[in-house]
Amino acid sequence: SGFLIPHTKIPGWWVWFYWINPVAWTLYGLITSQLGDVMTIMTGPDFHGSVRDFIHSFFGFQHDMLGVCAVVLSTFVLFFWFAFAFSIKFLNFQHR
Fold this sequence. Notes:
The chain is mainly alpha-helical.
């Protein structure tokens, strides 16, 4: 529906779906790589601190996980590439 729910706010029985979702890993990598090391101070009604601290406290994203995120996204790409190649090679729905 267009809403981003951080994994810190997802109920415990749905967290597994967050970790197998390629979109969640993509957002994790994008937000962490672009904003994970910004030390500019933010002030809001419920938060006062750096951008990096806000990302860690609200989303649970850590800049140290950037390498893990790249490996997981590469694994997703390889998995879907092999699934496609296997499907093209062995599944034939054209029977004559």
